[in-house]
Specification:
The chain has 6 helices and 12 strands. The protein has 265 residues and is an alpha+beta fold. The chain has one domain: Endonuclease/exonuclease/phosphatase (Deoxyribonuclease I, Chain A). Strands 3-4-2-1-12-11 form a 6-stranded mixed beta sheet, with no helix packed on it. Strand 7, helix 4 and strand 8 form a beta-alpha-beta unit. Helix 3 crosses helix 4 and helix 4 runs parallel beside helix 6. The protein is globular.
Amino acid sequence: MKIYSWNVNGIRAVVKKGTIQEFIAKHQPDILCLQETKAEQGQAEIDLTGYEEYWNSSQNKKGYSGTAIFTKIKPLTIINDIPEQFVKAAGLDSDGYGNANQEGRVIAAEFDDFYVVTCYTPNAKDDLSRIPLRQDWDKAMMLYCNDLQQKKPVIYNGDMNVAHTEDDLANPKPNIGKKGFTTEERNGFDNWLAAGFIDTFREFTKGNGHYTWWTHWANARARNVGWRIDYFLISDSLKPRLKAATIHADIMGSDHCPVSIELEA
């Protein structure tokens, strides 16, 4: 079983370029999770024969954020957004930028033997003004996925907007304490590992040079000056089924590239 995740940074753009059609035709994902779709269902014309489509779009900011799941396997249930009980427990609330839990950032799909949860995590902003919300968000997502994990294993994926270690970005030293590489954000990632989740890519590949996002500036992608901020984390109980975890840096069309895992059926 092949499961992919991709921050497309606007699905209408990658559809217009034909990039996503070529990608799906070549890779044939069983489940494809998208972040930052910036669209509602029906706004991007794409032939997805054989796939079920599930979208979660921003309620208050049209053309902003958003997630989607395309799957060949019909889910048992679909849950959009973080359930209110975990929002309250984490103290997650609106801030000066709005209510992040109304921006279509989370979809959970339940299948027979696991949950797939895709998430577009809010970033901390250049001035770090969203660090408090970011910490509450991480706590709410952790509570949510831990609850799901009590029922069946969880496959958590998406743009987590953090480089976990110095191996996860090309220039760690000058970025320490900056957006995406603060102590608070990195500690939030540590909490996933402490809760029994596995960073799948690091089960197969160590060291630096493996990135999923590149700025548009200074020819960064061609020079591979990037950050690894897109992940697949899985419950430890799924580890025996994990066959591969891959970064597809050759897939263009967005400032992020897809990541994937392969599980034994």
